[in-house]
């Protein structure tokens, strides 16, 4: 695909920027957004950066009826020496295309979109907060826009990128959370859409989330949909366990999202020569390791928190308290390493950073 | 809930109505639509019938990101004596609320909404086509509208009803279709959202649909997500088989949609004293019945087609040709009975019809 020329329409009415400590996730957006359109006969076209504003859609647009949509989530960080850093954004665009394939959405040209994304972030750079743990959240997404109630792939789409400044995930310092092991609801199953970042995978978890919260937990540990035995993910994050000195994470089995934080953690552990294995791990095995005193650490891994330690797992009335409800040494070391690379404090030996 | 007063804003710019033989499904909409809003602190409010027009939403509206949405599909028929008939619309509103519960969407008041729906259909009655097999398709749906990227239930929603005239599903007479038994992709699994009419369930089937079409089939026969053995649905319809004089349909197992056509067929068969059973049925069992010459008829059942005969099933290279690729006698009798009741040609002994 030839890169289409990017049109830029600047906002004449700039919003005031929120104070870092008053940002709640995902509610504040910057002055501009990126849009491009797709029509079956001409492909992706009309890339443009325009003032952030509502979009207008026919009520019969397919996005409202059949869920043909995919998204991504990544962050821009401001380094101490004032550079703007993206963490493995190529992986996000690759994954977006994989998600799109699953949802029968036409692929985007990753190279052009990376360029548009950089231009948008560059234009909005004053929106990147600078205090520790903050960043500018980047949400690319695609929606089906054809006006048609037929159950079939849309002939037209919109690809958009919106930006939202985010405060620190751990404002009072990193605190382990309590998690409920979900036995009834299923997030995803082989042959379904679990490996894609698509809307339906998220709202389908709300009932399990509510149940977990009612019982005093922060989120849900998902088991596989087939046997309700094997551990898959935690909330919207991948999950890791340190068991008797070895790090274990569920293998990519066709229903788990291939997290970019997850893949980075595995690479860092390999580099550190700490044993790490991707394999099936059942909740019974985990409980046994706990009972034997071998479950040393547990943490979720994803763009939002980077590392989110699990302090307590509740499974059918059994409670596992992990590392005394404190963040583990390895969890902390991984958090420092990855966030260090992301914010330019540590050397980027893997070439994971793209400077805008 | 007290019924809120319905505001009606009439369109001053009426569209021209399409000729019945030029209607393609789901692309033409009437002059008006129904909308009402939900906010967490006041509940459903501001019910109104307004000119059909695009809606305007913030790009960060939750519907675009996490798929919190449900819908329904039913039809208004014009009888020969010019009455406007709805077929079991109470069941659609009940199912809408069941779908909403699964998606953590607040319930609507079924009685008020039935009243709004009737008023909308009444206002648009000139849009109901009158030739054989035609009707006015009614699409109620709810979308999450809060501007927030948090993965959590929305605090605001829009409930809408749009109307679309539809031509005959079988314009050249009822023709059996060829169906591919899908072995790789999964529509739904227990603990998932299969029993809800929610967007994500539909686009997740597009890849399997495309595969089926590439191989010359009209649609997909879905097997259960756990063992890939038991038959669930066909396309967006429930499925029935007549085997050795007995009618068999998959039981409602927690991943199948509870179709209103399905439940009506079961009631009619009971009335006719034709044996009908809801149970698990595996694809192997079906193939064996076919090999033994006992698979007499097969048909999909849903609002769109009412009865859609299956003439051919393709399963891992094995082809089952059913009833010589002709519509079966029972399929035809059921089609005539249900469409007869729907259009007011036959006596409505079950009190299934609501006159507008
Ligand atoms: C379901 C799910 N699992 C895991 C992750 C973690 O992926 P990443 O590390 O790429 O953010 C995400 C996204 O954040 C997700 O939505
Ligand atoms: C997945 C699915 N199954 C079955 C049906 C049939 O249900 P009904 O008879 O209520 O139209 C539908 C809707 O038409 C559906 O979407």
From TrEMBL, chains A, B:
Keywords: Amino-acid biosynthesis, Aminotransferase, Branched-chain amino acid biosynthesis, Pyridoxal phosphate, Transferase. GO terms for molecular function: branched-chain-amino-acid transaminase activity. Residues 1-21 are annotated as: Disordered. The lineage of its organism: Bacteria, Bacillati, Bacillota, Bacilli, Bacillales. Gene3D superfamilies: 3.30.470.10, D-amino Acid Aminotransferase, subunit A, domain 2 (3.20.10.10). Its cofactor is pyridoxal 5'-phosphate. It catalyses: L-valine + 2-oxoglutarate = 3-methyl-2-oxobutanoate + L-glutamate; L-leucine + 2-oxoglutarate = 4-methyl-2-oxopentanoate + L-glutamate; L-isoleucine + 2-oxoglutarate = (S)-3-methyl-2-oxopentanoate + L-glutamate. Its EC number is 2.6.1.42. This is Branched-chain-amino-acid aminotransferase. It comes from Halobacillus amylolyticus. InterPro entries: Aminotrans_IV, Aminotrans_IV_CS, Aminotransferase-like, B_amino_transII, BCAT-like_C, BCAT-like_N, BCAT_family. Pathway: Amino-acid biosynthesis; L-valine biosynthesis; L-valine from pyruvate: step 4/4; Amino-acid biosynthesis; L-isoleucine biosynthesis; L-isoleucine from 2-oxobutanoate: step 4/4; Amino-acid biosynthesis; L-leucine biosynthesis; L-leucine from 3-methyl-2-oxobutanoate: step 4/4. Pfam families: Aminotran_4. Belongs to the class-IV pyridoxal-phosphate-dependent aminotransferase family.
């Amino acid at each position: 695909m030839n890169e289409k020329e990017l049109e830029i329409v600047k906002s004449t009415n700039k919003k005031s920027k929120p104070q870092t400590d008053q940002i709640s996730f995902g509610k504040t957006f910057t002055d501009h957004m990126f849009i491009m359109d797709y029509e079956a006969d001409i492909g992706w076209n009309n890339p443009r950066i325009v003032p952030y504003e509502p979009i207008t859609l026919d009520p019969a647009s397919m996005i409202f009826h059949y869920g043909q949509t995919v998204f991504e989530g990544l962050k821009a960080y401001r380094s101490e020496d004032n550079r703007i850093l993206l963490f493995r954004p190529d992986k996000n665009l690759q994954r977006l295309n994989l998600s799109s394939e699953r949802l029968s959405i036409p692929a985007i040209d990753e190279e052009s979109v990376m360029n548009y994304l950089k231009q948008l972030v560059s234009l909005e750079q004053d929106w990147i907060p600078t205090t520790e743990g903050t960043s500018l959240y980047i949400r690319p997404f695609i929606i089906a826009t054809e006006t048609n109630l037929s159950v079939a792939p849309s002939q037209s789409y919109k690809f958009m990128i919106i930006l939202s400044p985010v405060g620190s995930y751990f404002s009072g310092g990193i605190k382990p959370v309590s998690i409920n092991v979900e036995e009834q609801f299923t997030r995803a199953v082989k042959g379904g859409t679990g490996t894609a970042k698509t809307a339906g995978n998220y709202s389908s978890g709300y009932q399990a989330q509510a149940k977990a919260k009612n019982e005093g937990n922060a989120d849900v540990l998902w088991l596989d949909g087939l046997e309700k035995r094997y551990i898959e993910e935690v909330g919207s994050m991948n999950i890791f366990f340190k068991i008797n000195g070895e790090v274990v994470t569920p293998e990519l089995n066709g229903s788990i999202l291939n997290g970019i934080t997850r893949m980075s953690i595995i690479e860092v552990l390999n580099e550190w020569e700490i044993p790490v294995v991707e394999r099936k791990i059942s909740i019974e095995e985990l409980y046994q390791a706990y009972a034997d005193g071998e479950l040393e650490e547990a943490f979720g891994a994803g763009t939002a928190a980077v590392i989110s330690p699990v302090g307590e797992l509740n499974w059918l009335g059994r409670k596992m308290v992990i590392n005394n409800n404190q963040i583990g040494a390895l969890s902390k070391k991984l958090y420092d390493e990855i966030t260090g690379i992301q914010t330019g404090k540590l050397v980027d030996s893997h070439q994971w950073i793209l400077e805008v």
